[in-house]
Design brief:
The structure is a homodimer of 204-residue chains. Chain A is mainly alpha-helical. Residues 1-14 of chain A have low confidence and may be disordered. The termini of chain A are far apart. Chain A has ten helices and no strands. In chain A, helix 1 packs across helix 4 (64-76) and helix 1 packs across helix 7 (110-122). The interface between A and B is large, with 42 and 42 residues.
C-alpha cells in the first residue's frame, strides 16, 4: 500500500495506481497459490510472474497473506451464481437439475481441485486465507443454498426438521472430499455423483 | 537416540537397523508434516528433530514423500477402531451413540484438524501422501462404516436405496469440512454437530 520507498524510476507516492499492474499481480498471486500453496507463493515469484519488481508488490500489500487473500477474493468473486430472487422463484427440483451440469463441470475441473486443496491445506497454517475464501466464496453460496433448502422444507421436499447448516456441510463436504480423494472424478462421473448426492439429500 | 552409531563414519549398509532410530525418524517426520506440510518437512529438519544425521535418513528412505507416507501410516494405524464383527453384532443406533463421544473428541482435536488440513493440502501436489492416508486410515474406516450402513439398510433404519458410498462421503466430508472452517468446533460443539449429522443421515 502506501509503503515508504519507491521503485527505481518511479516518481512519487501519490501517483495514481495502474489497475492493469494490480490485476497482473493478483492473477499471478492466485495462480502461484493454486500451484504451490501459501508457502510456495513467494513475493519474489509473484512479482516475477506478474512482470513487476518486488517493490511494486511490497508498496501495495503489507503482507503476503493479505495479497493472496485479495487474489483469492478477486479470482472467485467473478464466477457465476444464480441470484437469490431467482433461486426463490424456482421449484427446488428444477433448480437442482438446472445446476447439476454447471456444478459437475466446475467441481471436476483441475483448477477447482487444486484451489480447494490449497485452501484446505492453508486453513490451520494461514487461517486468514480460509477466512477470505469463506467470506467471499462460501458464504454467498451457503446463503443461496440455505434459501433453497428452507423453501424445500416449506414445500415438503425435505423433512421439516432438517438442520440446514448440517445438510449444507454434508453436500459441500461430500463434493470437496470426493474431488480430493485418489482417483478424482471427471465431469461425467461428477454428474452421476451429484445426482446421487442430491437424491440422498432429498432434493432429487 | 539409542546409538546404533551411524552417520558420517558409519560402517556398512548391511548392518541390522535400530528400531528406535526408525521410530524417532517416523515420529519426527509425522510431526513436521502436521506442523509444516510436505514442503516444509525437509529431510534436514526431520533428521534434526529425530536427533540423527541426514545420511541416516537418506540411507533408509529413497524419497521424502516415501518417508512422510510411511510416517503417516505408522501414526494413524495405531488408533482404535471397533472390529468389524463387533460392528456387525451391535444395533446401529447403539453403535452410533457409543461412537459419538470418541469421535467428537478426536475430530475436535487440534492434531486432527492439522493432519486433515495437511493431507488435503497435499492431495494434488503430493498425491502419494493422500493415497497412503486413504489406504491406511480411510479405507478401514469406510469398510467398517459400510458394514454398519448396510445393516442399517437391511433393518430399515435408513432407506433401502441409500447410496452407501455417497452417504459415507457426506458424513466424513461434513466432519472434515466443518473442522477446517473458520471458528472450528470444540468437543462439546462437535458432539452436538455429530448428533445432528447422524440424525440427518437417518442413524439417530
Amino acid at each position: 500500500m502506501s509503503g515508504a520507498g519507491s521503485d527505481p524510476g518511479s516518481r512519487s507516492r501519490g501517483r495514481p495506481r495502474d489497475p492493469a499492474v494490480e490485476a497482473a499481480i493478483l492473477r499471478a498471486a492466485y495462480e502461484l497459490f493454486v500451484e504451490r500453496g501459501a508457502d510456495g507463493a513467494s513475493i519474489e515469484r509473484i512479482a516475477k510472474r506478474a512482470g513487476v519488481g518486488k517493490l511494486t508488490v511490497y508498496r501495495r500489500w503489507s503482507s503476503k497473506d493479505d495479497l493472496i487473500a485479495q487474489a483469492i477474493e478477486a479470482a472467485v468473486e467473478t464466477r457465476n451464481w444464480p441470484a437469490n430472487d431467482e433461486l426463490a422463484a424456482m421449484p427446488v427440483r428444477e433448480l437442482a437439475e438446472r445446476m447439476l451440469d454447471q456444478q459437475a463441470e466446475a467441481a471436476a475441473s483441475p483448477e477447482f481441485r487444486a484451489l480447494v486443496s490449497q485452501v484446505f491445506g492453508s486453513s490451520v497454517s494461514h487461517p486468514s486465507l480460509m477466512e477470505t475464501y469463506w467470506r467471499h466464496y462460501i458464504v454467498p453460496r451457503r446463503r443461496a443454498t440455505a434459501t433453497m433448502l428452507e423453501q424445500a422444507k416449506r414445500d415438503g421436499t425435505i423433512p421439516s426438521d432438517t438442520d440446514v447448516e448440517v445438510l449444507i456441510d454434508m453436500m459441500a463436504g461430500a463434493v470437496t472430499y470426493r474431488v480430493l480423494q485418489p482417483d478424482p472424478p471427471d465431469a461425467t462421473e461428477m454428474r452421476r455423483y451429484l445426482r446421487a448426492l442430491y437424491h440422498q439429500s432429498g432434493l432429487l
